[in-house]
From TrEMBL:
This is PTS sugar transporter subunit IIA. Keywords: Phosphoprotein, Phosphotransferase system, Sugar transport, Transferase, Transport. Residues 3-146 form the PTS EIIA type-2 domain. One of its GO terms (cellular component) is cytoplasm. PANTHER family: PTS SYSTEM FRUCTOSE-LIKE EIIA COMPONENT, PTS SYSTEM FRUCTOSE-LIKE EIIA COMPONENT-RELATED. GO terms for molecular function: protein-N(PI)-phosphohistidine-sugar phosphotransferase activity. It comes from Phytoactinopolyspora mesophila. CDD domains: PTS_IIA_fru. InterPro entries: PTrfase/Anion_transptr, PTS_EIIA_type-2_dom, PTS_IIA_fruc, PTS_SugarTrans_NitroReg. It is found in: Cytoplasm.
Amino acid sequence: MTDLITEDFVELHLGAGDRHAVTRQLAERLFTGGRVTDLDGFLADVRTREEQMPTGLPGGIGIPHAKSAHVVVPTLGFGRSADGVDFGADDGPARLIFLIAAPEGGDTEHLKMLAALARKLMNQEFKDALLSAPDAATVAGIVNREVVPS
C-alpha cells in the first residue's frame, strides 16, 4: 500500500499568503511527488470545493480538499504556518493545514480519510504533536500512524 503521506508532502514553514497560495504550495509537493498529474486542474477542483463552503475548522485547522480526476492515489499534504492562514473558521486562522487529494472515483476512501482526520483533530495531543514536530519525517510518521484507517 502507498503511504498516505510522506515527508516529501510536508512543509513545516509555509510562506505567507492566502489559502489559495498555501494550498498551491502543498499541491506542488503532491505534483512533484507524482500523486497529482495536473497541478492547475487539481487546484481548480480544490478551489471549486472551497467556494461551496470554507474548509477551516475550529482550533486552527484548515482542510482544503477535493476529489479530482488529476489525483493518482489518495494523498495527504501537510503544512504548518507560524502566522496562520484564513480558511474561514470562526475562531481565526489555521496553523495546521491538511490538503486532502482523493481520486475522483475514490468516494469511500476520501470520506474515510476525512472522518479519521477529523476524529484525530479533536485530540489536543495529536495537534500538539504536529505543532511541535521537529521535522517532516516525524510529521509523516505521526499522521500515517494515527490517521490511516487500518
